[in-house]
């Protein structure tokens, strides 16, 4: 009977260790999967950023300007790519704020096509948000940032036409597009 109790305890201890190890692996896989939910490399091979932290630093000025803050908490949820005729990349970066607002920023890397911005547009060369969040990645590529501010429905869209031109606009009335 004593041997049975010792064997049962050892079996229970072993099972507990296996269970805990599996739970830790499962938790680690969830974090890895959320990081891999989007690629930081465009289909043509252009690496828009080395990691999520770098990408968030690159778009920080646009994100913070939209919400008129200097430290908005958000998570990048998706990135869609369009490779243009000239070999440039339009990356549509969707993010979700901690308060649940889903919106986006568009980055254009080395896009040489004619770009037509429609609606209420302002071009920002320098402001408090750029000073607080400078972009070091712009040295590698010619990068333009597009974002729309205003009502919650404001998202920026870019569409490349068969003739090679690119239209950029905001999704609803009352928005202001900012180009950096």
User: Helical region count?
Assistant: 3
Specify the biggest β-sheet.
Answer: 6 strands, mixed
Helix content: 25-40%
Q: Which spans have pLDDT < 50 for at least 5 consecutive residues? A: 24-35
Query: Can you count the beta strands?
Result: 9
SS-based structural class? alpha+beta
Averaging pLDDT over every residue, what do you get? Answer: 82
| Termini gap | 77 Å
Shape: globular
* Quaternary class: single chain
* SSE run: HHEEEEEHEEEE
Which percent range describes the beta-strand content? Answer: 25-35%
Strand arrangement, major sheet = 1-2-3-6-9-5
Write a brief structural summary.
The chain has 180 residues and is α+β, with helices and mostly antiparallel strands.
Can you put this structure into words, describing what you see?
Helix content is 31%, strand content 31%. The protein folds into two domains: 1-36; 52-179, no CATH class. The chain has a six-stranded mixed sheet, covered by helices on one side. With 180 residues, it is an alpha+beta fold.
């Amino acid at each position: 009977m004593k041997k049975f109790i010792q064997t049962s305890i050892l079996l229970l201890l072993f099972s507990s260790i296996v269970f805990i190890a599996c739970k830790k692996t499962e938790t680690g896989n969830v974090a890895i999967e959320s990081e891999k939910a989007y690629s930081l490399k465009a289909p043509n091979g252009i690496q828009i950023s080395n990691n999520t932290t770098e990408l968030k630093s690159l778009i920080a000025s646009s994100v913070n300007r939209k919400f008129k803050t200097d430290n908005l908490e958000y998570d990048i949820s998706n990135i869609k790519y369009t490779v243009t005729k000239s070999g440039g990349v339009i990356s549509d970066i969707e993010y979700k704020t901690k308060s649940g607002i889903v919106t986006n920023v568009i980055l254009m890397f080395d896009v040489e096509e004619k770009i037509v911005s429609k609606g209420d547009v302002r071009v920002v060369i320098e402001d408090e948000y750029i000073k607080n969040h400078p972009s070091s990645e712009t040295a590698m590529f010619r990068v333009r940032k597009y974002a729309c501010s205003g009502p919650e429905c404001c998202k920026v869209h870019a569409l490349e036409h068969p003739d090679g031109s690119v239209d950029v606009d905001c999704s609803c009335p009352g928005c202001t597009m900012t180009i950096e």
